[in-house]
Input
Amino acid sequence: MALILAGIIMFGGSLVQGAIGFALGLIAVPLLVEAGFSLSQAVALTTLTIGIQVMFGAWKLRAHIPWDDVKPAAIVRLLTVALGVVLLLNVEAMDTVGVKRLVGVGVLLGVIARVLAGRAAQREWPKAASIAAFGVSGVLQGLVAMGGPPLVLWMTMRDFRAQEARAFTMTLFLLNTPVQVLLLLFLSQTMSLEVILMALVMSPLIYVGTIIGVRIGDRFSKQLLNRAALAVLVVIALNAIV
Output
């Protein structure tokens, strides 16, 4: 039953992430916890699933990867994901509901700030602001497998085409996953053989969800993609807060 529920969750998350370039972790982690997985188990399984999903997605969108933007973002995220993993190893002794609400409030405030910025959005963020966004993304990725929101808020301020935006986020997740998996393997017992096998068994569902999602996303304009991404963030933030 746990495998069936996880498969349904990961299929839906893969479809959404294939379409808009993020949200698998935002969808999967809360639902897996609700399904009876511990937070660390949910993060470990979602980390592996994201790795599999973005491998398919990034390959499909490989011609659109904006490497000049990916490289600095990847370096900052790789340096900060370890902090998130260390926090994860201690977070289950904390108020996890409070942590989820805090993340939700942060995401909602970020969306509000982005909407208020409107057409005044800059094509080039100050370096310090970009580093902060990528750093927070890395920490959240390691902590709760939810590194997408800071990337999306940064991305919507750039002059990316829809395919470039999805390729940007998926490539960053792909580059980040091996480090995160290794950290979980060596620092905790959460990345167990059972979790690894479960992710591998779900690979066909993840692939199908990704392919369908990518095809749906190919029909999005840049403006529609930004609106869809912000709408998903609002829904997920409100769900986390409530």
The mean pLDDT is 82. Residues 162-187 form the longest helix (26 residues).
